[in-house]
Amino acid sequence: MSTAPGALQAAIASGNGVAAQITLDQLEAAVNIGVPWTNGGTHVGKEFDQSPHLGDAIVATFVWRGTTNTITEVTDHLEDGTPVGNSYTLVEYITADGWSEATYVATNVRNFPDPAPSPDKILAVHAIFSVPITDGGEMISAYSGVSPASAVALGAHHSATGTGSTTTLADPGGIPIDAGALAYTFTMSNGVVDLTQPTGFSWLTGVWNTTNKAAGAYAVQSAAGVVEPQWTWSFQAPSTWFASVVALNPQIATHVGFVTQPSYTAMPGGTITPPVQVAVLDDQGNRVTGFTGSVTVALGNDGSLFKNAHLSGTAVEPVVNGVATFPNLSVDEPGMGYTLRAAADPLTGGTSAPFNVTFP
Q1: Alpha helix locations (H) across 213-332?
Q2: What 8-state DSSP symbol labels residue 119?
Q3: Most exposed among 5, 155, 179, 205, judged by the fewest C-beta atoms under 10 Å?
Q4: Is 206 exposed, middle or buried (0-12, 13-18, 19+ CB in 10 A)?
Q5: pTM of the predicted model, to two decimals?
Q6: Domains plus CATH for the chain?
Q7: Would you tell me how many other CB atoms lie within 10 Å of the CB of residue 112?
Q8: What pLDDT does 16 receive?
Q9: What's residue 263's pLDDT?
Q10: How far apart are CA 52 and CA 28, in angstroms?
């Protein structure tokens, strides 16, 4: 699937898919968190207050005093030190006036308990620097509904720096973005003063110490176009600002599929157990947890002798975390080779495995 501007809404318009709703899941940020590392460099890490959900995308932005990107690895672990090992890709790096900023993204994060059973099992994200640094800081945010495929999820991105001594716009530049995509923006400055978030963006958080201040914001775009988040810094002395913007594309739901098949041993009029479950899936077969809508089921093949069977129960169920559950379906006639048909317009429908309805 292409990530070119317009590709997502083209897929939706053609009836081939529906974009999942991207939502903020978890967020944390801190400064002054660099500690010595065993290789002689520095470890900068921050844990979430609560772990994000499996399948989320995580955006991690690091700031530090330095003029080159000496990060050798960005990865994650549990608070008890257990490695998790999701892969983080460098998306933006910029440096000016003795400071650096770098943003990394991981999609479809895995291998941690969800939910965390105890505080020591909460996910943390860290960067390992090859040399000692000072004034290390980090902002991590997790989002549901982003495409699990990194090549699809990562959209356009851009960064810029500048200076000012009075009220100043920090503008990373405009980037093209699709409808339904997330725009993540980050700014920092060595002027610890008031700032205002870009118009149309929701505040993430701001953190600061005596030497620098950083903040983040995000917005899910209702229409395709160009997004250009402009931060406003209220400088009172000559200061340097950084600003970046990164687009993350939503996961596209393309079809539905049965994940819990109808029972082969249900008797006429008896409730099919366990409950039939239908998942909303993307073109790679991944569950689309950010999908909002419902699924409808109906008889596909009528396995009764006279083709007069009826499906009873609640035939329309909402999708929750990518799955619609049908707890009270039943078929009133005995027969062999019944199937159910699931539909969620405009997605491609799915057919269940055959099942029989027999007397005990």
Answers
A1: none
A2: G
A3: 205
A4: middle
A5: 0.84
A6: 7-252 (no CATH), 254-357 (2.60.40.3960)
A7: 22
A8: 59
A9: 86
A10: 11
CB 183 within 8 A of CB 247: yes
End-to-end Cα distance, the chain: 49
User: CA dihedral in degrees (288, 290, 294, 299; nearest 10)?
Assistant: 10
Q: Which two tokens stand for residue 339?
A: 């199937």
**Integer Cα distance of 281 and 291 in angstroms:** 9
Quote the tokens at residue 277: 């479950």
Q: How many of the other CB atoms lie within 10 Å of CB of 51?
A: 24
Look at residue 48 in the predicted model and tell me its pLDDT: 97
Structure tokens at 98: 């003795």
pLDDT tens-digit map of 172-196: 999 999 999 999 999 999 999 999 9
Q: Residue 88 in 3-state DSSP?
A: coil
Output the six-digit token pair for 176. 């093209």
pLDDT tens sequence across 212-245: 999 999 999 999 999 999 999 999 999 999 999 9
Alpha helices of the chain — where are they, by DSSP H? 7-13, 150-153
